Amino acid sequence: MSGQGREDASSTSLALLRRRSCLAIPLAWLLAAETAYDTAANIHGGVLEHLMGVASGVTWMVLTFFVPMVVVSGVLMIWQLYARRGGELGSSRERGLRANEAPLRRAF
């Protein structure tokens, strides 16, 4: 998937999650899997080409800061998708409303 395609997939996934669509979770898993594959393939290629030894300027900053952030955010996203599997997409307040069938009252 190209960079633009990944941006479209992430934006679509976020919009579907916000609307609590049933397609949001599979699309988020697809995005996570594609990002993991793409990141691993590019890291492998960079190691084979000895990219860290010749990187300078913006390339060095991308390799030093951006790539690790992509890896960490990908791991966190997969962890959240796995930890919340089988759960509802609603907020805890909405789940509380459905469980108690009475609206929460505010004190002010």
Describe this structure in words.
The chain is mainly alpha-helical. It has one domain. Helices cover about 75% and strands about 0% of the residues. The protein contains five helices and no strands.
Unreliable stretches (pLDDT < 50, length at least 5) are none
Main sheet makeup = none
Q: How would you classify the helix and strand content by structural class?
A: mainly alpha
**How many extended strands?**
0
Mean pLDDT across residues: 79
What general outline do the C-alpha atoms trace?
elongated
Q: Whole-Å distance between the termini? A: 50 Å
Question: What is the ordering of alpha helices and beta strands?
Answer: HHHHH
How many helices does DSSP assign? 5
Strand content: under 5%
Number of domains: 1
Helix fraction?
A: over 70%
If you compute it from the alpha carbons, what radius of gyration comes out, rounded to the nearest whole angstrom? 19 Å
Identify the quaternary structure here: single chain
Gist of the model:
With 108 residues, the protein is an all-alpha fold. It has five helices and no strands. The model has no long low-confidence stretch (mean pLDDT 79).
